[in-house]
C-alpha cells in the first residue's frame, strides 16, 4: 500500500473518531478563497448528512490514489449505485472526476489564515461560492493570478 494511501486512511479514521480535522492547504486550486498554508477545518460527514450538502459547499474527499482534496460542490447526481458528486477547485479549469458518497469525508466549516479565522458559512464565503458557481469563466482568471502569485518573478519554483 502506498504511503499516501496509508496516510489518507489514518486521517479518515481520526476524522471519524474526533468529528473534525484541521488540514493545512497545499496548492492553488482554491485560490484566493483558500490560500497555500491556510488551515482548513472540516467537519466529518456521514452518509445521511451528505443529503444536506448544497451547491457551493467545499467538501473534503479522498481520491482513488489516497490524496485528500477540498473542492467546491457543483452538482449532485443520483445513480442506481448511489449519489455521486461533481466538484472543482475555484482556480481549476476542469472538474474533478465524479466522487462517490463513500469518498466524501467532510465539509469545510472554517479557514484560519495566520491569526485570523473565518467561518465558511458567513456572508462573504457564501457570496464567493455563488459567484464561482454563476461565473465559471472566472476560474481561468483566478488560475492565472494564483500562478503568477506563486511562481512570479522572485518566487520559488519558477525556472530561468
Describe the structure.
By secondary structure, the protein is α+β, with helices and mostly antiparallel strands. The radius of gyration is 16 Å and the shape is globular. It has three helices and eight strands; from the N terminus they run H-E-E-E-E-E-E-E-E-H-H. Helices cover about 25% and strands about 30% of the residues. Strands 1, 2, 3, 4, 5, 6, 7 and 8 form an eight-stranded antiparallel beta sheet that branches.
Can you describe this structure in just a few lines?
The protein has 160 residues and is an alpha+beta fold. It has three helices and eight strands.
Helix count equals 3
Shape: globular
The CATH class designation is: Mainly Beta
In the CATH classification, which architecture applies?
Ribbon
| Count of DSSP strands | 8
The average pLDDT score comes to 87
Q: Work out the radius of gyration.
A: 16 Å
- H/E topology pattern: HEEEEEEEEHH
Helix content: 25-40%
What is the fold-level CATH name, i.e. the topology? Umud Fragment, subunit A
Low-pLDDT runs of 5+ residues are none
Give the biggest sheet: 8 strands, antiparallel
Strand content: 25-35%
Q: How many domains would you count in the coordinates?
A: 1
| Structural class computed from helices and strand pairing | alpha+beta
The named CATH superfamily:
Umud Fragment, subunit A
Amino acid at each position: 500500500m502506498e504511503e499516501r494511501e496509508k496516510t489518507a486512511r489514518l486521517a479518515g479514521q481520526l476524522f471519524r473518531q474526533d468529528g473534525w480535522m484541521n488540514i493545512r492547504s497545499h496548492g492553488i486550486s482554491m485560490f484566493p478563497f483558500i490560500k497555500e498554508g491556510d488551515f482548513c477545518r472540516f467537519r466529518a460527514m456521514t452518509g445521511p448528512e451528505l443529503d444536506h450538502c448544497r451547491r457551493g459547499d467545499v467538501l473534503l474527499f479522498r481520491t482513488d490514489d489516497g490524496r485528500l482534496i477540498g473542492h467546491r460542490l457543483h452538482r449532485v447526481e443520483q445513480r442506481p449505485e448511489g449519489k455521486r458528486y461533481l466538484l472543482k477547485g475555484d482556480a481549476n479549469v476542469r472538474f474533478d472526476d465524479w466522487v462517490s458518497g463513500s469518498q466524501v469525508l467532510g465539509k469545510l466549516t472554517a479557514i484560519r489564515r495566520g491569526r485570523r479565522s473565518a467561518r465558511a458559512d458567513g456572508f462573504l464565503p457564501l457570496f464567493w461560492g455563488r459567484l464561482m458557481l454563476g461565473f465559471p469563466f472566472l476560474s481561468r482568471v483566478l488560475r492565472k493570478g494564483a500562478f503568477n502569485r506563486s511562481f512570479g518573478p522572485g518566487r520559488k519554483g519558477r525556472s530561468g
